[in-house]
Amino acid sequence: MINKTLAQIEQMAIGEKLDPQFRNVLIKGVSIDTRTISPGNLYIPIIGETFNGHQFVDKAIENGAAAVLWGSDQPNPPQQIPVIFVKDTLEALQTLAKSYRDELSIRVVGVTGSNGKTTTKDMVASVLSTTMKVQKTEGNFNNHIGLPLTILRLEENTEVAVLEMGMSAFGEIEFLTLLARPDVAIITNVGESHMLDLGSREGIAKAKLEIVDGLSKQGKLIYYGDEPLLTERVKTMNIDTTTFGESDNNNLYPMRIKQENEGTYFSINQQEGKEFYIPVLGKHNVNNAMSAIAVARHFGLSWEQIEKGLKQITITNMRLELIEGIDGINLINDAYNASPLSMKAAISLIHDLQTTGKKIVVLGDMLELGDNEKEYHEEVGRFIQADKVDYVFTFGALGEYIAEGAKEQFPQERVLAFRDKGQLIASLQKLLSEGDILLVKGSRGMKLEEVIFAFKK
């Protein structure tokens, strides 16, 4: 993490008015949350729509903050702790992170895309960590606040940082990539997420490609080559690329994929005789693994090191997470988020899995899809195969359109729509038995992990 004197912090954050007697006070890390303050931290009070971090400075001091950045327009700066005044604390956080990034001798991998960003980040970090010191974005710290905090947590001897970059509007990826300055950029895919803000898949592709704006001159773009909206735009760019995808038009593509209940086996064109294994469910995750392979080969890793790194992957929670449930039930928690693309991927997984019991899906609303949200939900319902799934449960007002789509091929009694989560759980309790597989998926706002908690062992 950043380890600087307050005099250095003042200069790096473009602050002012630090009392000279505190110039040599040493700062070890930063925090914007008083609940996560560690002794020696710099507290940076952010102002949000419904809160003002300046109001909690006393708690930050109590928990061990060594100094604070303070908005020049904010009243009552603390007297019992060193203060650096800044015009805007969020901008100061971002400026401090940029200054720290510029000092580090580090290679950066930036990851964006409509789906699979977090899983890909985890895979890249796992593979590269077989030979290098790697740090990665933790949790969902992938926006204009989270990415600067991630950069400020990097150790000076870290060799590679794997940074996830999220967005919901034009210009957001551009801001993040110019801050992080990646040596390698990955675009996992282009889906329908944030259609409400970006208007079309074309707009989404344009926004994702902003990641190239911060790419180093000798950098590489690794992207999903089966997406015409990307390939057509990349053709006009003077940039080194590697593509991955299902078709043999890509630099990396799968030759064989075998889905097992504990993970996924696959081989690729560049190493057809070698079978790779990832302890991750879902054939679509082979694409994410191939992007990680492309990064590793760019950094000079051997195929043996890549194989080892893929085997030891640990995926962030609630991404097709296999959980042991009560009474011999198998739970798949994919409740972190949802889009039409990721819904279909999760449903395809359920189609492929083998079980001695029933296969049941619980699917919730997909949010931020814009004017065609009804059609997207109905399409997901029609995608579910009645001969490979026993019951479809939906949750939420939009989820009812999934149910309508499913009823085109399912008997009515095997499709149940709910707006009350308690009633949904109660109905599942009557239905579930030993050997069953239960998949739960929906947008973050639906909080469908509560269904998982009801049956978790």
Reconstruct the topology from this structure.
Blueprint: E1 3-5, H1 6-12, E2 26-28, E3 30-31, E4 42-43, H2 57-62, E5 67-71, E6 83-86, H3 89-103, E7 107-112, H4 117-128, E8 134-136, H5 146-152, E9 160-164, H6 172-180, E10 184-187, H7 195-198, H8 201-208, E11 220-224, H9 228-234, E12 240-244, E13 254-260, E14 263-268, E15 271-278, H10 285-298, H11 303-311, E16 321-324, E17 330-334, H12 340-352, E18 359-364, H13 373-383, E19 391-395, H14 399-406, E20 415-418, H15 421-431, E21 437-441, H16 449-455
Parallel strand pairs: 3-4, 4-5, 5-6, 7-9, 7-10, 8-9, 10-11, 11-12, 17-21, 18-19, 18-21, 19-20
Antiparallel strand pairs: 1-2, 13-14, 14-15, 16-17
Care to describe what's here?
By secondary structure, the protein is α/β, with parallel strands linked by helices. It has 3 domains: 3-88, Udp-n-acetylmuramoylalanyl-d-glutamate--2,6- Diaminopimelate Ligase, Chain: A, domain 1, CATH 3.40.1390.10; 104-311, 3-Layer(aba) Sandwich (UDP-N-acetylmuramoyl-L-alanine:D-glutamate ligase); 321-455, Protein-Tyrosine Phosphatase, Chain A. 32% of the residues lie in helices and 21% in strands. It has helices spanning 6-12, 57-62, 89-103, 117-128, 146-152, 172-180, 195-198, 201-208, 228-234, 285-298, 303-311, 340-352, 373-383, 399-406, 421-431, 449-455, and strands spanning 3-5, 26-28, 30-31, 42-43, 67-71, 83-86, 107-112, 134-136, 160-164, 184-187, 220-224, 240-244, 254-260, 263-268, 271-278, 321-324, 330-334, 359-364, 391-395, 415-418, 437-441. The strands form 5 sheets. The chain has a 6-stranded parallel β-sheet with strand order 8-9-7-10-11-12, with helices on both faces. Helix 3 packs across helix 5 (146-152), helix 12 (340-352) packs parallel to helix 13 and helix 13 (373-383) packs across helix 14. The longest helix is centred in the first third of the chain and has 15 residues, at 89-103. It is globular and about 75 Å long. The two termini are 37 Å apart. 49% of the residues are buried.
